[in-house]
Design a protein that fits this description.
The structure holds two protein chains of two kinds. Chain A is α/β, with parallel strands linked by helices. Chain A is built from 17 helices and 23 strands. In chain A, helix 3 packs across helix 5. The two termini of chain A are 46 Å apart. The longest helix of chain B has 29 residues. Chain B is mainly α. Classes of the chains: A alpha/beta, B mainly alpha.
Chain lengths: 505, 306
Amino acid sequence: MPNRLELTGITKQFPGVLANDHVSFAVKPGEIHALLGENGAGKSTLVKMIYGIMQPDAGEIRWNGEPVVVANPKAARKLGIGMVFQHFSLFEALTVLENIALGMDAKIPSRELESRIREVMETYGLALDPHRTVATLSVGERQRIEIVRALLLNPQLLIMDEPTSVLTPQEVEQLFTVLRKLAAEGCSILYISHKLHEIKALCDTATILRGGKLVDTCDPKQETSRSMAEKMIGAGLKDIVKAEGRTFGPPKLVVNKLSTIKTGHFDVAVDNVSFTVRAGEILGVAGVAGNGQNALLDALSGELIGDDREAITIDGFGIGLMNTTERRRRGLCAVPEERNGHAAVGDFSLSDNSVLTARDRLGMVVLGLINSGAAKTYTGKVIADFAVKALGPASTAGSLSGGNLQKYIMGREILQKPTVLVVSQPTWGVDAGAAAAIHQALVDLAAAGSAIVVISQDLDELRALCDTLAVINMGRLSAARPVKEFSVEEIGLLMGGVHGSMETA
Amino acid sequence: MDLTIAILVTVVGASTPILIAALGELVVERSGVLNLGVEGMMLLGAIAGFVVQFHTGNHYLALLCGAAAGMAASLIFGFLTLSLSANQTATGLALTIFGTGFSALAGASYSARPVALMSPIFPDLATHPVLRVLFGYSFPAYFALFMVFAIWFFLKKTRAGLILRAVGENDLSAHSIGYSVIQVRYFAVMFGGAMAGVAGACFPLTLTPQWAEGMTAGRGWIAVALVVFASWRPFRLLGGAYLFGLVMTMELYAKAGGGPLSAIPSELWAALPYIATIAVLVLISLRRDASTNAPACLGKPFMPSN
């Protein structure tokens, strides 16, 4: 039997970057094949060429043994290649059925389409009501729409781009069941991820890319997570250095019965949340996206101001009625999830962006005039200490890559030495090397006596980084407990909204 | 009874141009484009309709030419905002100013020259004391009602309507699936222009049988407000348009000195539709769930590269 897909010497050159350099590998029928690599390793470029979004500069693509040119996504779908994107291209105000109809190349009467959708959903155990509006669905359910849409075309190869980054552990397990079933029926799966334990659990073969080059093709079940990670980054992996048996100081940030008002139709408000973070402690807030994390961050940072002065206190001083600037003066800094446009102004220089959040704490404004020298020096220090790849303090925030901008933003806040630091998704889209540096900086900041709150959807990150953990679900926060006391299953159940998991175990 | 019938008949007549223009704008906004040039396009439609009627005497040809004038003006808007990605708000305002000025210039030599109004399409029933509520109108009133249904059907039941809504909801996703966002929006903008042109032509052809500068008197703005008031839904638009028509008609009867209505000064009655427009917009902005029904891409230029 010929290989389902075979790539030989695929090369793609972008201005200044060789995104793919003579990449060759093959996917067998019914195989689950992992494509592994850091951000910027060339995974996305490679699958875009397979799916016809881009054309390779050199090299050959063979499909079931025949050489093919995939001119566009439509041609790819015609061959039998389906793709589920990391960022869903869904229309929130439309129903599931309408969304799927829009994505079909052929015009199918809606009644017939609906019965085919129900058939696919039943076969693969993907529960979904075709008449629900997408806006009311969870992220996991939205992903199911994309999967159903791809499966309706009876693909022979399904490309999944980082499918689990937004799912709860239980949803991941459901997804794996579907994928295994598909593979058993002979559909090949190209699974892009950087989560090594998932690849070990799911995939038959792993192809590892680094800097556009193929590093290795291996059997993930024979490798350890660490050995694959080291192939991915091409160097030894640094662990977080954390002093054992640290004791925490007095409470720094105390949140008592904090609630917010729902701001938009689809937002989730924070509902009666209480927790305490002590000096030197890192508290993790786990949860699936869209469960009130944004409201929690906004309420803590001062973007949403409540009506109870004592709902949030720093060192016993009530800051519940203060705005962002006043809270920063009191020592509370925050990093929101959306880095471009929220945490930083894309069209401003890095220097000006530093002035925006550090002006009071570091005295960058005197008598209403900006001390641009101080801003420049500070920004230079951030760039140097956090290894930000930027031309200098004068380059605009928007010109930085996502990972570098994140390093700059984290550095800008951490070097202000805040009493309390609240961060959301500190390493989202940042490569493993930089993520390790950011994690270490957070641990060092805590060791120096700050209280830190980390809101993240990445459980691995939270388990490695945090001392205590709480789970947010539909705006409610579970009780915070030492992170070692939690099992992954228990966190997963809490994320899915099952409280008091002891009864269900 | 007679007075009620008379009021109702006037209400429908006064509402019809607003309804037609608002229906066009509804389709435009559903595709994600905000065209504030409705007033200007209506005036261009009004002068085009008047001139054609004046020289040919054919009302239907006049309506058609009104539509063509509105559509031509909308193409200017479309070219600037869709092909050149100009700011939609500023371009729409410019279009209104242009339409006001150009129609005044073109109509300068036509002022105070009367034309014949369109006659009812059921002449026998139009004189019936009661049935004229239903059958006493000329073509545009029925056209407007038909379009309410047709646009609802188009948006809700057809694939083309689904694509149009998808483009207004998430232009980048629609683009990535393979629909031409710009092309869909051009069609929507042209349709909106044609409807505004017809609406404008209704003024000299069905309401006041002559040309007067700025004769649409801000009704285009009311149409824009109505679309928001109706949360972008055609049947709500119908109710809203008749409600506004009622408020405007009250003014006429107050002026005529009919009983209790004249207790309020007629200037206040005249201002009422505009006050109501502002009130509606304020109320809408306070009601949070209403804004979520707005097309998510409304007013944002389509930038596929980012």
